Amino acid sequence: MGITNFFENFLKQDSLFQDKSVLLSSYVPEEVLYRESQIQEVANILAPALRMDKPSNLFIYGKTGTGKTLSVKHVLQSMVNLAATNNIPLKAMYINCKLKRVADTEYRLIAQIIKELGQEIPPTGLPTDEVYNIFYKLLDQQKQLILLVLDEIDQLTKKMGDDILYNLTRINSELKNAQLCLIGISNNLIFVENLDPRVKSSLSEEELIFPPYNALQIQDILKKRSEKAFSPDVIQAGVIEKCSAYSARDHGDARRAIDLLRIAGELAERSGSKIIEMSHLDEAEKKVETDTIINAVTNQPKQFQSVLYAVLLLSPQKKNFFTGEIYETYKSLCQKTKFNILTQRRVSDILAELDMLGVINAKIISKGRYGRTREISLSLEESLVLKLKEILEKSLLLSQ
DNA sequence: AGGTATTCACATGAAACTATTCTCTGAGTTAGG
DNA sequence: TAACTCAGAGAATAGTTTCATGTGAATACCTGT
């Protein structure tokens, strides 16, 4: 089949999608289902901003995909619109603290805020206080109120301490004209507890919890989105129900459900099917899992990959193995590849990271007289293991 | 037999170090007046 | 003399090393019967 032919077919075949952007996570619907009370709460708390009174700082938490970000964005959008028409100097800023190399450190967070305020800051080289000074000046040069949303703040404090948040919370006392209101979002429920008490009391002057959606609610959300996203009658009966059941099963993650549906649609389209069937959904679920793992692994540094490769080498031999065994195979692997050998300390951390990624299952056990270690087993399907091996071999320049 | 103390093989934490990438500063150099 | 160049000092960051301390339970070692 000629390539031209393929493209002709591609054009002729009418897409299953009408507007795929509706199913992307960046999409903010004009109506947010099942979050009315939460939205009302957020609005109540933030409303004083429209009269240029600084609202209480707000802290929101709830599991992933419970509509936290969406609701906040929704409220902010309408506030900003209102402010614009009434000439109120109100600004809203949304920053995701998880984005690597964008806002995941103190320096970069401030730099990112400054960028939002319309000034560029070099990515490195400046002392942090200098950056703070620029930030203060920029904020304070006019009378204004700023609503600063920090999504996934837990990521920020995880690596660095909570100094950053402390600095941010006490910024207001330094400002003459401007005012800053913090809105923190986190999906880690215990995050606030380990915070410096001063930061804690200041950051969570108001607190809001977002409960997970249940299966029926996810179903409605999916239905509503799919009406816009897909052409009429392309979804086989039961697919939406199953999709929502999948996601409700772990913890009511609506974003996952939406992703799943979109990918199922893409898979169906690619396979030339006129409708989205159950099988596409199953396929999508598998694909999501494999893709996230492959993505995570390929973005990791070489040494990390080496350790993973050592695990893969070891896994066919036995079901469970220990840190020490992995370290040994890793060492001999390094000898072959001529990498320098990391300390066991580091390898131990890498194994912990692999556990977090869900690539391996690690449990800390005590073997009594024979020490304490991680008991590790691989938690991947055979096909994915092979794929990973291939990827790693390429990346580590291993042949044979 | 029953109770304690040891001991192994790591885990976990904190701090310090290294290499890289970047800025800023100021001395030295150049070119034009 | 003003503009330009370029080396050196100082920062931020990721990835790591070094040093230090923690830890759960199978075993070794008692103890008194």
Could you please describe the fold and organization of this structure?
It is a single chain. This protein is of the alpha/beta class and 400 residues long. It has three domains: 36-209, P-loop containing nucleotide triphosphate hydrolases (Rossmann fold, 3-Layer(aba) Sandwich); 213-296, Helicase, Ruva Protein, domain 3; 300-395, Winged helix-like DNA-binding domain superfamily/Winged helix DNA-binding domain (Arc Repressor Mutant, subunit A, Orthogonal Bundle). 51% of the residues lie in helices and 12% in strands. It is built from 16 helices and eight strands. Strands 2-3-4-1-5 form a five-stranded parallel sheet, sandwiched between helices. Helix 13 crosses helix 16. The protein binds a DNA duplex (33 and 33 nucleotides) through helix 4, helix 15, strand 7 and strand 8.
